[in-house]
Amino acid sequence: MHDALGALSVTPVTHSEPMAMNHRPRRPTGETGSRPSPGEVLDRLSRGESRAARITHTEHMPAREGRHAVWPHRIRAEVIAAVEQAGIEHPWAHQAEAAEHALDGSSVVIATGTASGKSLAYLTPVLSTLLDGSEAANGRGATALYLAPTKALAADQRRAVRALAAPLGNRIRPAVYDGDTPVEEREWVRQYANYVLTNPDMLHRGILPSHPRWSSFLRSLRYVVVDECHTYRGVFGSHVAQVLRRLRRICARYGSEPVFLLASATSAEPALAAGRLTGLPVTEVADDASPRGELVFALWEPPLTELHGEQGAPVRRTATAETADLLTDLTVQGVRSVAFVRSRRGAELISVIAQERLAEVDRSLARRVAAYRGGYLPEERRALEQALHSGELLGLAATTALELGVDVSGLDAVVIAGYPGTRASLWQQAGRAGRSGEGALAVLVARDDPLDTFLVHHPEAIFQQPVESTVLDPDNPYVLAPHLCAAAAELPLTDADLALFGPAVPGLLPQLESAGLLRRRSTGWYWTRRERAADLTDIRGGGGSPVRIVEAGTGRLLGTVDEAASHTAVHEGAVHLHQGRTYLVRELDLKDSVALVEEANPPYSTVARDTTSISVLSTDTEIPWGAGRLCYGSVEVTNQVVSFLRRRLITGEVLGETKLDLPPRTLRTRAVWWTVTEDQLDAARINPEILGGALHAAEHASIGMLPLFATCDRWDIGGVSVPLHPDTLLPTVFVYDGHPGGAGFAERAFHTARAWLDATREAIASCECDAGCPSCIQSPKCGNGNDPLHKRGAVRLLTELLRGAPDEGAEGATAEGAPHEDAPDSPAGRPNLPGPAAAP
Known about the structure:
Layout: H1 6-9, H2 38-45, H3 49-52, E1 55-61, H4 77-85, H5 93-103, E2 108-111, H6 118-134, E3 143-147, H7 151-165, E4 174-176, H8 183-192, E5 195-198, H9 200-207, H10 215-219, E6 221-226, H11 234-253, E7 259-264, H12 270-278, E8 283-285, E9 295-300, E10 304-308, E11 314-316, H13 319-332, E12 337-341, H14 344-361, H15 363-366, E13 369-372, H16 378-390, E14 395-398, E15 413-417, H17 423-430, E16 440-445, H18 450-457, H19 460-463, H20 477-490, H21 505-514, E17 518-521, E18 524-527, E19 547-551, E20 557-561, H22 563-569, E21 575-578, E22 581-589, E23 594-599, E24 604-625, E25 628-648, E26 654-659, E27 665-675, H23 678-683, H24 688-705, E28 717-722, E29 732-737, H25 745-751, H26 753-766, H27 791-803, E30 820-822
Parallel strand pairs: 2-7, 2-8, 3-5, 3-6, 4-5, 6-7, 9-16, 12-14, 12-15, 13-14, 15-16, 19-23
Antiparallel strand pairs: 1-9, 10-11, 17-18, 19-20, 21-22, 22-23, 24-25, 25-26, 25-27, 27-29, 28-29, 28-30
């Protein structure tokens, strides 16, 4: 499951057409002497008329001085001495403040910028408390639990703790406990480690179901550290919220009440989000007192090409090709850089292209660029990080595996290939450069996508807006039900426990009992099955048995994919990437949950196409928008993957479409929708001939813009647009969550609808194309081949709709279409676990 080191072992790919190069790279500038300023680096990147025209905006953020404080007097002198020995004489003000809250027994979230020292802010009170506990009479003393969203980050943090705590001797005993921990080490961790680092998945499946074996650790648990807590959003975040409630319940039974210490990238309302995640009141520390070097942030739009896409629309050069050019040029300049890419395939492709281009200049340069992504062996990952830190490597093309707190310093520039979905992630990635206090350059390269295009032409949406609120819904019955079963299996549920899990519990318990999963007795609710209740749900997946990916010739298991994603990810003919090798799916056997693949090297990627219909189950809220209505409620979505497109790797050019025969699937979820009347259509000059295209175009653009207002990706949501919907009897546009029971995205859309739809209208109106393109109204996942679409009709329709929008307060959404549909990338079917007939 691991790739070899990128630059040293990646086999170059051959491209079926020459890449559009703007200029031949020169030999590298000297790497000795003073660093060039971020502005100088950007000037070199933008030399030439065609290059300069691609920069749509440059933001200059001045350096900031740090503000020192003193550690709380209750921090033990040995810990302060260890911190000083690590080269830190005085804490930043926010570090001291957070430590004070932790020592007071108040749960706290530290929401400050990248490289602001969040780890030290929670480690000092934790280590001090563990030292106190090491002197306890019972021998075990105080314990602490650290949760990270990835195994790599937990391993990275263990190294940091060991280094910091080295002067404290064996009184601090950190250990990683996850799926990679050898069996022979696990008992030692349970019995002797006092700082256990793990992830929510292992807590859910391993620690909580086996809590009697962890009793001494849990009885002494003083702190729970939740790192990178902004990543716990949507359905995954909702699952983690319930896992934490189960942890609190078990701890209470053992007599402990741990304090939660959360660390987050800068986020809106961090205390509110942390409170929803933990179920506890949380104090926020958000005033970043750390110093910051100068940051130059450029917005970069690739040029239009001579190629044409669907319906003859103009196509821009891909962000992948453009980012590879920039990484090449930065390497030639001797600038240490990371290019962040959304996909593993994209990271590897960018590194290969950059290596090929650098080899034209100097073969030795090609070895100084590599790919970095999840799936590497720990020693390979550390070798890459060390090579980048030392300067042996000048450039990395990385997925978000490098975004989450892994300590890489000394970078000069970051290139971000496509908006990462949220402003929080954008600033997290941009903050990887300049971590040693030096100036840094960040470049956002826009994809051919409505949101990316809007952002590079509306810089105020990035630089003058706060980061998003974290959206999660712990009361989602599809999330809550399996965790109630898991909790009952851990310890019988009593009436006193129910409030901990939220207000939806009383309505769910009778359904779980009627399904034969729980049994009511005088002492509480009991799990009735032999199988493990924790296996009812995968907290990162959508339910159902995972589909195994098997190499047809050898029978070797390559990996698995969630059942919910199998129709779009491993359908017959799909391109599948594994360990740097490319495979084609020969057969998808849904009965046996197996996808048979064979190695190949096609010059294209594949994108599934689907059709969707939607019915309204219940309307929770309905608000007049002039004569139209804005609604939020429960829906049932029927989705069927019907074909897939083949797109050329570098250019994105569509090479062809192949039909598929897969069964339909249903999803009960939450949606926001809006309707318009005949009078509104007349006022907007929308006749029946263009109505479908206007609705469809508005649907596409609104889905593309929603990530600006909710912490989601366009692939997390779907939509349907209908000229006459049978439930509303009016032209209607729906946008729905692509997860059973909903993920909170549609609800967020409802509450920000005025701003969201206004931005949608602006994105369409300001696009320079004539009739619609991928930058405004075309969708990469449209089930109808982006036909029909009517750009001007969509602008007039949204203008008329917004004319009747309430001034404030009552707000709602836009949507995506049936007969014109755009389903989520991984539309989850109904989970094979109990839940209500429809989400509440």
